[in-house]
Specification:
single chain, alpha/beta, 7-stranded mixed sheet
């Protein structure tokens, strides 16, 4: 099984886990609690703009759960707002205030509902450190996963705002 956490795009070969019961969702649940899945039962896990919604005190436990359910050589595709890019853009004197407010929304979450808050931020160095400490190997930053057309591909101002990383168990 391949699992898209937090997604809503139905795609052949992928099951969807979402905290909200939406059309196409196969499993209701939270990225921080994968107890409904057995050890070594999932081939690939995809999480686009979900991991930043995990509270700081649950980051390591959440990664341990992801690692637990992945099969050997399974891949974790994770996309988060890239703070290096967003902070650089925010500090630019070339951007107007409207764009800077939008950037802050990408940093802190859209806050449209109780699930839409960002609790932690990442750049490659920080995310890689968390992944390594969990046991992941072959950690690679990529421009695109080529899997789903979603926020991982978002370029609102001509440049990508996402940090896309593939980590292998």
């Amino acid at each position: 099984m391949k699992l898209n956490i937090g997604g809503d795009i139905v795609k052949e070969g992928w099951k969807i886990l979402n905290i909200q019961n939406k059309p196409g969702v196969d499993f209701i649940g939270d990225i921080s609690n994968l107890s409904q899945f057995e050890n070594n039962s999932i081939e690939d896990i995809y999480a686009s703009h979900v991991f930043e919604h995990v509270t700081q005190d649950k980051i390591e436990a959440t990664l341990q759960e992801i690692y637990r359910v992945l099969k050997k050589s399974g891949r974790f595709y994770v996309s988060v707002p890239d703070l290096d890019i967003l902070f650089h853009a925010f500090r630019s004197t070339l951007l107007d205030i409207k764009i800077k407010k939008h950037i802050l929304g990408m940093v802190f979450g859209g806050q449209e509902d109780k699930h839409d808050f960002h609790y932690f931020g990442y750049n490659f160095e920080i995310l890689e450190d968390f992944l390594k400490s969990t046991g992941f190997s072959k950690i690679e930053k990529v421009k695109s996963f080529g899997l789903f057309e979603d926020t991982s591909e978002f370029k609102p101002y001509g440049f990508p705002i996402s940090l896309n990383v593939v980590a292998e168990k």
